[in-house]
Amino acid sequence: xxxxxxxxxxxxxxxxxxxxxxxxxxxxxxxxxxxxxxxxxxxxxxxxxxxxxxxxxxxxxxxxxxxxxxxxxxxxxxxxxxxxxxxxxxxxxxxxxxxxxxxxxxxxxxxxxxxxxxxxxxxxxxxxxxxxxxxxxxxxxxxxxxxxxxxxxxxxxxxxxxxxxxxxxxxxxxxxxxxxxxxxxxxxxxxxxxxxxxxxxxxxxxxxxxxxxxxxxxxxxxxxxxxxxxxxxxxxxxxxxxxxxxxxxxxxxxxxxxxxxxxxxxxxxxxxxxxxxxxxxxxxxxxxxxxxxxxxxxxxxxxxxxxxxxxxxxxxxxxxxxxxxxxxxxxxxxxxxxxxxxx
Amino acid sequence: xxxxxxxxxxxxxxxxxxxxxxxxxxxxxxxxxxxxxxxxxxxxxxxxxxxxxxxxxxxxxxxxxxxxxxxxxxxxxxxxxxxxxxxxxxxxxxxxxxxxxxxxxxxxxxxxxxxxxxxxxxxxxxxxxxxxxxxxxxxxxxxxxxxxxxxxxxxxxxxxxxxxxxxxxxxxxxxxxxxxxxxxxxxxxxxxxxxxxxxxxxxxxxxxxxxxxxxxxxxxxxxxxxxxxxxxxxxxxxxxxxxxxxxxxxxxxxxxxxxxxxxxxxxxxxxxxxxxxxxxxxxxxxxxxxxxxxxxxxxxxxxxxxx
Lengths: 343, 307
Description:
heterodimer; A: alpha/beta; two-stranded antiparallel sheet; B: mainly alpha; MetI-like fold; 5% strand; periplasm (chain A); transport (chain A); signal (chain A)
């Protein structure tokens, strides 16, 4: 995929030097399998801009690459938890999306967010939750509990996958045992570690998954992201998504512009472009998460409008919490627990 | 007379100078591509860790190295051996050693078989051995998963024949990792073994048999010592990459048990402890170097003995 992309950006460069074939270039640095090609084609045709996309697989990888420099990325899509780090380290350009034309479409709920108050830097890409995917043929009980991970019922033992996202796993375990996010309560953390160590033999793996591992019965339950769970259910209706009533994380990925961006104006155009409801709906149509733009529902497929993976049921709405990045010394504690868990 | 000697000496000097010049590009590349980055990693390992990954430049600390071997208990603050790191190291070494032994046991007869075929047939067999290299490691690993998963070829076949009625859990176990590693590294064992066996004069084995050595004695006392360089080379080629293996344990082992490679990745990623990650990387390199030294020592000794 890489060589192809490089060739594409090379061609785009030649085009931009020669007689104006395209107005310019835009280089997007986003999570893998997350960008709708139709959205990109539409953007390219609307503004006569050639777009390239490069994948990353974690916030920390993206952060390291951006910090190191030597790239020509314009747009980056950090998760809410790592947004404050990007801003504090001065990596992002204050593009003031709040003054853009399409800003009026942004759901007020997502404007004054703690990770970017008033939206001076970023625009919502997609948001979702982390919860439980479970096969109802194997397990008929209540899916809305993280006991499925930490005190698994007999029929699920040895069939559970846990996504190896340290912060998500620790957050859920802490909430399951009655603590608060980023807690430093040592007594509780000891219990968290013991609970995790006790639960681990009952999990079959700790891996990033794909739909196929569920449909082929490698897993009967998993810690999973809401949109991923929806994609599974659409292929295999045996699977449902549950919201742990003990507490679950809510996250949002955000489109921001790098300070080192060579094509700032095009990047601004893109930020404004995706705040258009019809375009935001295109984002969601691909990766199957909600997007934070009002009016986009009108352009969505029917299976999205009512999907319980997207529309959080009222009784669980207040159980979710926007997670923030924990302080460095807390991360150090959590890394120790994590290493203990995986040794 | 002296004049002639001077000319010869000058020519020799020029020759040496030319050699240096000619090898300069290679030396520069080795320095830039191997020693330079290694030096950067060493430097990172002795700096203070940054709050969110990276390091604080030019602030030095031995914390990274301290954490490789020791840990401060997060609950009672006592210092003890880093039990987690040691057990991960032990698991990696064990897995690499078992992989080496398994590939040796499987690879030796294979190489022997190929080396004893008629000359014109050997190329075909060698060619067959290299076929797996045509495909990317990641794709081959996913293919192994297709065979061993619960609804994979093996389990389905066993259930159809009625040998089992429940699928056997092979995926996400240590056994799956071993299967994957053995499969991936087997050609690296066969090729150097074949190179040694091909040079072996099989008349020696016949002579030993004529002198009433039974076949296991011939193998132990004649063949194995003669092909020792191949065994050593194959073992190194398998052991070293298995020690740092990352993809195979991650995909087939399900990520529940960290290997050294995965532990290092954790420190540069979610753990945000680059100095520790760097120190662990250097430790891994040091372990590899040490085991290479031991191997080479042992090999040169056997060679001297059987010269």
